[in-house]
Specification:
The structure holds two protein chains of two kinds. Chain A is α/β, with parallel strands linked by helices. Chain A contains 15 helices and 16 strands. Chain A has a seven-stranded mixed sheet, covered by helices on one side. A five-stranded parallel sheet of chain A has the order 2-1-5-6-7, with helices on both faces. In chain A, β13 and β14 form a beta hairpin. The chains are: A alpha/beta, B mainly alpha.
Chain lengths: ~450, ~350
């Protein structure tokens, strides 16, 4: 009996809370002080605690900066802006279920006109169906799995109900470019020929590792071994022992640091497998001073031979100026005071949402219409002037900037704790048509029995 | 149940068939070890023994607590995790160790001190948990202490998360992880040897304690029949508290060696390791000390064999397949059940 009463009480409270939440944004003019029309929200859905904080926090900072600057400039389209920041890291790792819940929260809050995030492709997979149904614009600074947007890779599964109403865009390019870019770098620039490929058995990790491996083999390299080590692996010693017998001259880790990237590198050093460590953007998550970063876990000296790609422009024209504003704005924060690889892209995402809001603000009759107008504006093929340069989204929501940046660890930086340094960036945009066709071509090469048998 | 118990001990050691049945599981494990060795070679075998030893140390606590009060102490994995952090606190923060210590006598003192401090602190934590979370529920329905155990496990996780933050933390590896020696064509790390040796020494001490001391006898009698033991003058509360102390101290020792071996810990390591150790305890026959140790090594063998043969992604599934197979043929686990009967 008592339990039942308690349950009833709990349900009652939740209904009441929901009613309150629904009521607040319904009257947007209520708390308006500076701007005439009230306050709108930009949702932020990123992993922000635990080991995953090093992934999400630099991107959050980018959005925070963009919104702070917009408010200082007097708001956008007559509205003040605030952030609705939701963290979907659970126990230090990104969590799909929490990501889905958070997206439902954002979709349900009518004052949210767009969202920035997520960081991990596996989270995007569960969020896109929700935001697509609601028609909420979502801009990811960091997702790279090609299957999220491209129909050839199964993206229509995520926008089943409104396949033509694109609501998910990203300013990072895709893994069918990021993976092969590292293959070419490993083969040509680093001279590697026999690589051990480890992935964390997730949407992102397995996908990017597949892309890397196919292209590396197409170039003439061999795969020493391909190992799936699921995201809660802590003991990599046996797979390192097994791999050593195959004499790899490099290791590619398809995954993110919280899934074990840092532990793998640390244990490689302990087991005496002293070869270059390569990976996608998932392993480049902060300096040796940041808790949970690859360099911090593995140690600066152990990481000295590490290379990472980032699926976004690393050296954009306004970078020095952006870094200066960023560092000035966050100088009093306790962590992540300097921009990370995805701070600029997250800032760009926020810029795009705000520019679209600027255009949409006048004509929209109510909150729902405003949200839809923002979405339609972003995905209509408009060119946006962002900190990264001009960005246009194609019919699937993918960015026109097909740029991959390369980074390397310098163990001497940050007082010997180590940090990533930018090496170069490559623009794959010259062959937009080729880029469309190339994944299929390399897919055939990788899929043929001769190639996989070698 | 009781009729089996009374008819079986009629001729416990004289019966050769019974002796063979008892030796059977040991032969099974030996045969398995030989097979694994042949399959994966000495290098991987050393890896398997190392990780198996860590599982075994944790499994001992599960099995002792289950043996004496029939409680699956789900907080036990977290006690192991706390042990790893206590060791970090002592070695890293109090003694300021950061890397390998090359001076052997100093290293020995440091290692032994780390074990003693961690085992005492974590042992007392176990006693405290028993006193406040389990003892008041000793006569409550089975489900109640089980839920408290899960609650304690969350509390411990959250406390460590608040103190040390949710990110993984590096621990001082005072035994240089890259120092190795040759054996049977393999290159074995001194730290591997140390982990295995520490586990074996602790297990032998535990066996001696349970079988040769007064308190050990009290434990066995309490496990067999709590009320009868009480009638014979055994102080039940003290005996159960001692069981928790020893079980938790062993998990603390596992935490110390985990930190030394991997050099990186986080507040979530208790869940995975606890699950594996619990599986080890069930595999060996929960309540049975030797069984828990064997179970730990078997899980180490299965995991490493999966990695060595290229099926690492299936390691977890294979561990539980092994558990199911063993339970199908021996529902009470490899060595049967009771602390009192077999220990």
């Amino acid at each position: 009996m008592e339990l039942r009463k308690l349950a009833a009480l709990a349900v009652g409270t939740m209904v009441l809370a929901a009613a309150c939440q629904a009521g607040a944004p319904g009257s947007p003019s209520a708390g308006a002080s500076g701007a005439a029309k009230g306050t709108l929200k930009i949702g932020v859905t990123l992993p922000l605690s635990g080991g995953a904080r090093a992934d999400g926090a630099p991107a959050l900072r980018g959005v925070e900066l963009a919104v702070a600057e917009a408010n200082e400039a007097g708001g956008v389209g007559g509205y003040n802006l605030e952030l609705s920041v939701l963290d979907h890291a659970v126990n230090g790792k990104y969590n799909e279920q929490q990501g889905a819940k958070d997206m439902q929260t954002l979709v349900g809050d009518t004052s949210v006109i767009g969202a920035v995030g997520p960081y991990n492709s596996a989270v995007a997979k569960v969020q896109i169906p929700i935001s697509n149904d609601a028609g909420l614009l979502q801009c990811s600074p960091a997702n790279t799995n090609e299957g999220l947007t491209k129909p050839d890779f199964g993206a229509l599964d995520y926008r089943k109900n409104f396949p033509d109403r694109i609501n998910y865009v990203r300013v990072a390019t895709t893994d069918d470019i990021q993976g092969p870019a590292m293959s070419a770098y490993a083969y040509n620039d680093l001279g590697l020929r026999n690589i051990l490929v480890v992935d964390d058995v997730t949407t992102f990790g397995t996908g990017v590792a597949d892309n890397f491996q196919k292209e590396f083999e197409r170039l003439g390299g061999t795969t020493a071994d391909r190992i799936g080590a699921n995201a809660d692996t802590t003991d990599f010693v046996p797979i390192i022992t097994a791999a050593k017998e195959k004499n790899p001259d490099g290791v590619y880790y398809g995954g993110v640091v919280p899934s074990g990237g840092g532990l793998l590198l640390k244990q490689m050093a302990q087991q005496g497998l002293d070869v270059p460590f390569l990976g996608p953007d998932g392993i480049k998550n902060g300096s040796g001073e940041d808790e949970g970063a690859l360099i911090q876990i593995a140690g600066s000296d152990e990481s000295k031979n590490s290379y990472a790609t980032v699926a976004a422009i690393g050296d954009f024209p306004a970078k020095a100026e952006f870094d200066g504003r960023f560092t000035e704005h966050f100088k009093d924060e306790s962590d992540f005071k300097t921009p990370g690889a995805y701070s600029g892209p997250a800032y760009a995402c926020a810029t795009i949402i705000l520019e679209a809001l600027e255009k949409a603000a006048a004509g929209a009759a109510d909150m729902a219409a405003l949200r839809e107008a923002v979405r339609a504006n972003v995905t209509a093929g408009t060119a946006f002037e962002t900190v990264l340069g001009s960005v246009t989204f194609d019919e699937n929501g993918d960015t026109s900037q097909l740029i991959i940046s390369f980074y390397k660890v310098d163990p001497a930086l940050k007082n010997g704790k180590g940090d990533w340094v930018f090496i170069e960036q490559q623009d794959f945009g010259g062959a937009v048509g080729g880029a469309e066709g190339s994944p299929e071509a390399s897919g055939e090469a990788g899929g043929s029995p001769e190639a996989s048998g070698s | 149940m009781s009729s089996v118990a009374t008819s079986a001990p009629a001729a416990p050691s004289a019966n050769p068939i019974l002796a063979l049945r008892r030796a059977g599981p040991f032969f099974f494990v030996l045969a398995l070890a030989a097979l694994v060795y042949a399959l994966i070679g000495p290098q991987q075998f050393a890896n398997a023994l190392t990780i198996g030893a860590i599982y075994a140390l944790i499994a001992l606590g599960y099995t002792m607590v289950y043996g004496i009060i029939a409680l699956i102490n789900f907080a036990h994995g977290e006690i192991f995790m706390v042990g790893a952090f206590v060791s970090l606190f002592f070695l890293g923060e109090q003694l300021g160790q950061t890397g390998p210590v090359r001076d052997l006598p100093v290293l020995l003192v440091l290692v032994i001190a780390a074990f003693l401090v961690t085992m005492v602190v974590v042992g007392l934590l176990g006693v405290l948990i028993e006193r406040f979370a389990y003892r008041p529920l000793r006569n409550a329905p089975r489900l109640a202490p089980l839920i408290t155990a899960i609650g304690i496990s969350f509390i411990l996780q959250n406390v460590v998360q608040i103190i040390y933050g949710p990110s993984p933390v590096n621990t001082p590896q005072i035994i240089a992880p890259t120092e190795r020696f040759g054996l049977l064509g393999a290159s074995i790390g001194y730290v591997n040897l140390f982990v295995l040796a520490a586990a074996v020494v602790l297990m032998v001490l535990l066996q001696l304690f349970v079988n040769r001391t007064r308190l050990g006898r009290a434990m066995r009698s309490t496990a067999q029949d709590r009320e009868a033991a009480q009638l014979m003058g055994v102080d039940i509360n003290r005996t159960i508290a001692a069981t928790f102390f020893i079980g938790s101290a062993l998990a603390g020792a596992a935490g110390v060696v985990y930190g030394l071996y991997f050099g990186n810990i986080s507040f979530v390591i208790g869940f995975q390791a606890g699950l594996k150790a619990f599986t080890a305890a069930v595999l060996g026959g929960i309540g049975n000390i030797t069984g828990a140790a064997l179970g730990g090594f078997i899980i180490g063998f299965v995991e490493v064999t999966a990695a060595a043969t290229g099926y690492f992604v299936w390691a977890q599934a294979l561990v539980f397949t092994t558990l199911i197979l063993v339970l199908v043929f021996r529902p009470a686990g490899l060595l049967g059940q009771q602390l009192g009967e077999r220990a």
